[in-house]
Every structure is written in C-alpha cells, then in structure tokens.
Amino acid sequence: MKPIPVYRAGAEITIDPATRQLSFYVDDQLQKNYPVGVGKYATPTPAGDFKIINKVTNPGGVLGTRWMGLNIPGGNYGIHGNNNPSSIGKFVSLGCIRMHNASVEELFTQISVGTPVRILAVPGYNQKAVVSPGSGGEGPPLDHTVYYVRPGDTLWKLAQQFNVTVDALISANNLLDPDHLSVGQAITIPT
Q1: Interacting residues of 60 by C-beta distance below 8 A, sequence separation 6+
Q2: Mind listing the domains of the chain with CATH numbers?
Q3: Which of 92, 119, 169, 179 is the most exposed place for a label (fewest CB within 10 A)?
C-alpha cells in the first residue's frame, strides 16, 4: 500500500517555459522535476510570482484529474492534468501549465493553497506577458474556462450562458449524469 503524502511547509514551485520543466522545492531543496506543456508562442504562459489560489479534484476533460488555480491577473490560469499526454514537453496551451495526470496527482498532494509559484521570464517567449501581482495585467486568452456550479444551475442553463452545446459540455467534463450537478462542482467550458 502506498503511503499517503502530506502537505509540506516551505513548498515552492518554479516553472521554466524554456525547458518545459516544473521544479518542486521544499525549504529550497529540489524534491522533483516534472515535464510540462506551456503556452504557445502566440499565447505564452505569463511570467511572474504567483500563488496557488484553489485546488480541484477531478475537474475532467481538458483539465485531466487535478486543477491548481493561479492568481495571474487577467485570466483563469492554472497547473493541471490533461487528456492529451503527447502535449507534455511542448508549447501547446493558451497559457496554462499542463502535466501528466500521474505527475499532477503526486504534486497536488504535497502543496496547499497559498503555495508560491514562480514562472520564469524567457527572452523572446513571454517577456511581454510578464505580470506582477496587482498590476491587472492583460494576460493571453484562455485555453479553457472553469466555472463553479452555483445553486439553480443546470447544464442547459450553462450551455446557453456560455454559448456552447450541451453535448460539448458533457464531452468536455465526462459527465455520466448531465441532469445532476453539485454546487461548487468545477465545469470546464470548452472554447
């Protein structure tokens, strides 16, 4: 039986878009490197110092098995799993950081909301997308939207609100019972 990891005090994450690597540190000691997919050149992953602001288990669809939201101004960016393993190690997203599902699950158990995340500036890649917290910076467009279900929401209302089909919502979220949504449930809105 695998031991259950615990959150670690002093945890930090550094993401280097140039090498497409996420490095996980505890008390300034490297614990592990993970390969990641980052933003395309036209829609780079913004550089700067941020924090994890929320964590969601099994968001599904393009987000894979875990989501860790970042406080990057001007967008809905995060570190997440994915449903396309071949995208890891490439410039593929519209700004988010993609990981293999097994890797994001491992990392997810070791960090908490508030964990610092530094995304490095890379000459010729994301220098214009450098964002400082509180700047209200203009981030690149999103490769997805995550909506959290509110009381009274239905899949049909969400489809109408976001101008997508119900079938697209079902597919993006791997919903087995589209008639049942839970308040607080993360729903991926395909773009």
Answers
A1: 172, 173, 174, 175, 188
A2: 11-129 (2.40.440.10), 145-189 (3.10.350.10)
A3: 179
Which of 96, 100, 144, 180 is catalytic? The answer is 96
96 is catalytic: yes
Residue bearing tokens 């158990």: 109
Contacts of residue 72, Cβ cutoff 8 Å, sequence gap at least 6: 46, 48, 50, 95, 131, 137, 139
pLDDT for the residue numbered 80? 96
Q: Which of 80, 100, 144, 180 is catalytic?
A: 80
- Three-state DSSP string of 1-43: CCCCCCCCCCEEEEEECCCCEEEEEECCEEEEEEECEEECCCC
CB neighbour list of residue 1: distance below 8 Å, 6 or more residues apart: none
Q: Is the pTM of this model over 0.85?
A: no
Strand partners, 97: 79
Q: Is 80 noted as a catalytic residue in this protein?
A: yes
pLDDT level of residue 140 (50, 70, 90 thresholds): very low
